[in-house]
User: What shape does this take?
Amino acid sequence: MSTTKTPLLPGHWYHIYNRGINGERLFFEEENYAYFLKLMVRYLVNSVEVYAYCLLSNHFHLLVRVLEELDKPPHLAFSHFFNSYAQSFNKRYNRTGSLFERPFHRKLIESERYRAQLVYYIHWNPLHHGFHEDFRDYLYSSYQSILSTSPTHLKRNEVLDWFGGKEGFVEYHQKELDFEEIKEYIVEK
Assistant: This one.
C-alpha cells in the first residue's frame, strides 16, 4: 500500500505521519510542540478533523478524517501547515532548507477496529521509541487531552465513544495490544 501518493478523499480516515529530514529533530523546546499544535489548528481546521496525535522529537503521528465540505484540497492545507512550521523553525534555529521529509506519509484507514488500534498505537509511540517510560503521561500526545474536560479542537467525544467512554478508553490503553494484527500499519521512525 502506497503511503505517500494515497489521495486524501473527503469523508475518509487517515494516519498522517512524517519525520524530520534525515531523521533530524522537529522539536527542541516545549514551545516548539505548542506552536506545531497551534499551527495544526490554524491550517487544518477547515480541511480535517483531528482525533489523535503524538509529537516526538523527530517525528509525529496524526489520526484525521477529511471533511466532506472543503475550502481547499486537504493536501494543500497540510502543505501550508508544514511550510509555516518549517519557516518559523528555520528562523528560530538559524537553519535553512527542508525540515520535513517529502511528501508527507498517509495511510487510508478502512476499518473501525484499526482506527481504535491506531489511537492506541499513536499514544504508545513515546514508550515504543524510548522517549518516555509511561506513554499515558507523555505531554505531547492527545492521550491526556482526550481524558481532559478542557476546551480542545480534538474530536474528544467521538474518540471516547469508540471505547465506550472514558473508562473504556483508559482500560483499552492499559492492556497489551497485539501489534501483530496491525503490523502492516506500524511505522518505524
Summary: The radius of gyration is 16 Å. The mean pLDDT is 89. Residues 13-185 form a domain with the Alpha-Beta Plaits fold (CATH 3.30.70.1290). The chain has one domain: 13-185.
